[in-house]
Each structure stands twice: as structure tokens, then as C-alpha cells.
Amino acid sequence: MQIPAADGLFHKAIIMSGVSDGTLLHVPQGNGRKIVEALMAELKFDKVEQLETVPYYELAQAYNKVSPDITKDGGYVGNGPMAMITT
Q1: Looking at the domain assignment, is residue 39 inside a domain?
Q2: N or C: fewer beta carbons within 10 Å in the chain?
Q3: Angle between helices 56-72 and 33-43 (to 10 degrees)
Q4: Is residue 10 very low, low, confident or very high in pLDDT (cuts 50, 70, 90)?
């Protein structure tokens, strides 16, 4: 929408993903490993590749069950902006 070739193609727009400087949202700890391990335990999987075979509804149910405990402990469970750290 910001390039000249898009002029006149859009009447309205909304921002779907905002930006954050880290002051408005809690910055979680970790890289997603805890949520993956919790999902695997909940679904009784022994290989991470098995997560690719789960129907969405079943995966969402497992996520909703295990993510609150990880979030409570400050762990990263996805779904939010996260500052990228480059070294």
C-alpha cells in the first residue's frame, strides 16, 4: 500500500500488527522451547515432527491447556510481538 503502483487501489486500511518499543507489553523469557515441550507432553508425542500432524482444533485445545502455566512463569508462548535480538 505504500508504493506508488498501489495508488488508488485501496480506500481504507487497518493496522493488523502494531509496533512496540517493549514498554507496553511484558517481554517474555525464552524462545518457545517450553511451549513446544509442554505441547508434546500434553499430546503424548516423542518427536517434534508429530506436531505437524495434529488437527488444528486438537492442537489449539492442548495449547490453551498448557500455555497459562508457562505464561504465569514468564515464558514465551507466541502470539505477541517479541524484540529480535541480533548479535
Answers
A1: yes
A2: C
A3: 130
A4: confident
Whether 25 is in a domain gets the answer no
Q: Which residues of 3-38 are buried (b: 16+ CB within 10 A; e: fewer)?
A: eeeeeeeeeeeeeeeeeeeeeeeeebeeeeebbeeb
Collapsed DSSP state (helix, strand, coil) of residue 69: helix
**pLDDT (tens digit per residue) in 38-80:** 999 999 999 999 999 999 999 999 999 999 999 898 888 887 6
Q: What is the pTM of this model?
A: 0.63
Range(s) of the domain holding residue 67: 30-76
User: Is 84 domain-assigned?
Assistant: no
